[in-house]
Amino acid sequence: MSKRTADFIIIGGGLYGCATAYHLARLGAGRVLVLERGAICSGGTARSCAIIRTHYSVTSNLLHAVESLKIFSHFDEIVGGDVGFRRTGYLIVGPEEHREPMLRVFRTQNEHGIDTAILSPEEAREVHPLLSFHDVGVIGYDTMTGYADPHLTVQAYARRARELGARILTDTPVTGLSLAGAVKQVQTPAGDFESPTVILAAGPWTNQILAGTGIRLPYVVSRHKVITLKTQRPYDPHWPTVKDLTTPDKIYFRPETGGVVLVGTGDHGEPVEDPDVMQDPVDLAHVERISGLISNRMPAFAEAEYTSGWTGPYDITPDWNPLLGPVPGYEGLHVMVGFSGHGFKLAPTISEAMAQMLVGERPRLPIDMYCVDRFQQGRALHGAYGIGSIS
Ligand SMILES: Cc1cc2nc3c(=O)[nH]c(=O)nc-3n(C[C@H](O)[C@H](O)[C@H](O)COP(=O)(O)OP(=O)(O)OC[C@H]3O[C@@H](n4cnc5c(N)ncnc54)[C@H](O)[C@@H]3O)c2cc1C
Hints:
Layout: E1 8-11, H1 15-26, E2 32-35, E3 51-52, H2 59-73, H3 75-78, E4 86-87, E5 90-94, H4 99-111, E6 116-118, H5 121-127, E7 138-142, E8 146-147, H6 150-163, E9 167-169, E10 176-178, E11 184-188, E12 191-195, E13 198-200, H7 206-209, E14 220-230, E15 241-244, E16 251-256, E17 260-265, E18 270-272, H8 284-297, E19 305-316, E20 323-326, E21 333-337, H9 347-358
Parallel strand pairs: 1-2, 1-13, 2-9, 5-15, 13-21
Antiparallel strand pairs: 3-8, 4-8, 5-7, 6-7, 10-11, 11-12, 14-17, 14-18, 14-19, 15-16, 16-17, 20-21
Helix pairs in contact: 1-6, 1-9, 2-9
This protein binds flavin-adenine dinucleotide.
């Protein structure tokens, strides 16, 4: 059998490509081939803050997040490997109008074993003494949120996929697709590869790869910036991750190695045509703006020092939820794209469900609500907190 043919070709060796390859190989799906243009984990996942929370107002997201959290928490036993999972807990603060949606989310979280509570400012300061709540209407808390290391996570899935027989070719950019007929041709500078089933997991680059096919998936790419800040006193690694819904940028922050706090945004970011934003610098205007929001929430950060920053791409769909499964009208072509800045935490079970669907099994957790044509069907998945990656 030619090394240029496979039962499944996955385009993109980021988190979703490698995790889905692992599950396909685990399920005995035959010859699984991943084509990655650069190194494993060189796309958006490499820039991820990798926060793993279960607070979601879209119930299907919450269910995937809860089950994925269990996998992240016991990754070595379930998949194999250390992904650097750290449990921090999660404080979510918002205006008073978020109290009702927050309580609804808490009820669903509780039904699925997640410990949650509404806290008074005094109670919240017991878990995070630097926080000020002068402009906050409601404070929610759960004890189980954490974060992992994105590189370790992708490398673990890739290593396990290879151990189970999948092939992952790096430095192999896909330059075009030919979708006519039962066998699809996948073009690369190293020659064509072919398969009856092609899975596009190229994150924000997916529409570029589809350019010659007449297909354009409904997502836009935006530039997102992450910064780290420090004060004289090291930021305690046990303090919870915080989501601040009172800020227009919907900032979030969590402890990071080296006694610093890492701060990202859950807003739309700056729209860009080219997803290759990874080398773009973080401008000082952004640092100053975010520092102002942080010192409002943590007055001890009024004189904080900016220590590092980086940029990464979000692939944002109209309802901030992913596009998963077959592309209507193109049998054998599947996508997993549009994770809208919150796909890290969902990857363990979404990749599992995708692989189960591809081999004809019923997914353990459904993914059909994320179908590519849901917008035409009037089935968008809008969350309770307005637009943003909290959905
Ligand atoms: C700054 C930032 C912070 C984030 N923080 C969080 C968070 O805290 N929690 C959370 O849950 N999510 C977060 N996310 C989102 C999450 O990281 C992503 O949704 C997830 O990692 C996407 O994985 P992916 O595999 O779809 O994409 P990617 O990691 O982008 O993988 C796509 C791969 O395709 C490859 N590729 C591109 N073009 C080609 C080609 N022509 N041929 C072959 N290969 C190609 C790329 O090199 C890349 O390796 C964040 C994202 C960013 C950018």
